[in-house]
Amino acid sequence: MNIVVEFFVVTFKVLWAFVLAAARWLVRPKEKSVAGQVCLITGAGSGLGRLFALEFARRRALLVLWDINTQSNEETAGMVRHIYRDLEAADAAALQAGNGEEEILPHCNLQVFTYTCDVGKRENVYLTAERVRKEVGEVSVLVNNAGVVSGHHLLECPDELIERTMMVNCHAHFWTTKAFLPTMLEINHGHIVTVASSLGLFSTAGVEDYCASKFGVVGFHESLSHELKAAEKDGIKTTLVCPYLVDTGMFRGCRISIFHVCSSALSLTLIMLCHADVHLLKLI
Known about the structure:
Blueprint lengths: L1 H25 L11 E5 L4 H12 L3 E6 L2 H27 L15 E5 L5 H14 L5 E4 L14 H29 L2 E6 L12 H23 L5 E6 L13 E2 L2 E2 L3 H9 L12
Parallel strand pairs: 1-2, 1-4, 2-3, 4-5, 5-6
Antiparallel strand pairs: 7-8
Helix pairs in contact: 2-3, 2-7, 4-5, 5-6
């Protein structure tokens, strides 16, 4: 008898989930404001990480950029500062035109901070995270974006590259989340964004280590989402992004069947159009 009751309860919950999903598709949720919030992006020196940084800058977030390549990271920071200057100039022009402060986005102390960090090394992550807390403050939005690909078939891939792929693409998410989640839990506020891959949902030949790392991080994110829900920490949001192969350099020239890699700019546009409060799986 209990089994029958449980069957109908589960069926009802599944159908209700479809109803809620349809409602959210028709009535889009209000776009989240990140103005003035501290947003940390890993792998910000190039590719999607750089595009994320520029988009968050346009939305007036205070940015903390991590990358293993100092020069590339500083180049991204320079682009961000240029956006900040344009925003401040636009605000000043609007005030002079007499539009009224109520029509202007809230004034924030727009700054960008850069840190050279190898997210594949646990101690490096924890030490850099402590520096961020002391020099910037607590992180409100954590974007785990850093990733690498070895580009070798399994038997041709050195063990060191396999280990490196797993550390950067998967294990790093554990270290960064453990570094910044405790404060989010204390104040019941924050947002963790996991940039995975469509290859974390299905696999293809020649990228065994990459697929394994992305499958792992998808599982990590889903389990973390359930853990936060069970703890009733509804102020901490999670977003899982699974883009198709993006033309950021790692997959240039790659194709699966008839599909080529996707433009990084197009991928970012579609990602930013998806406003999911709790959980997002998006194939682009």
